[in-house]
Write a structure and sequence with these properties.
This protein has about 80 residues and is mainly beta. It has 1 helix and 5 strands.
């Protein structure tokens, strides 16, 4: 699935736990981080913040909805 979006050498960073009910994975490709919805088949580029520590801090303090995202289209 990830190859369809043109991400080179995606590296898994973290994923949600089964009890959340949402199958999300955070991946890194190059210097960019992405969220992948395994069920919906969508990939979102994390536009802001751009650094992993700031992304995690934002998610912990405000939730993932506080991240600025841009949908990545299939290539």
């Amino acid at each position: 699935m990830i190859a369809e979006f043109g991400l080179e050498n995606p590296r898994p960073i973290m994923c949600t736990t089964p009890d959340t009910g949402a199958p999300y994975y955070m991946l890194q490709s190059g210097n960019t981080f992405y969220l992948w919805n395994a069920i919906g088949g969508t990939v979102w580029e994390i536009v802001k913040p751009r650094e992993l520590d700031e992304i995690v801090k934002t998610m912990v303090e405000k939730g993932e909805r506080a991240l600025k995202l841009k949908e990545r289209k299939e290539e």
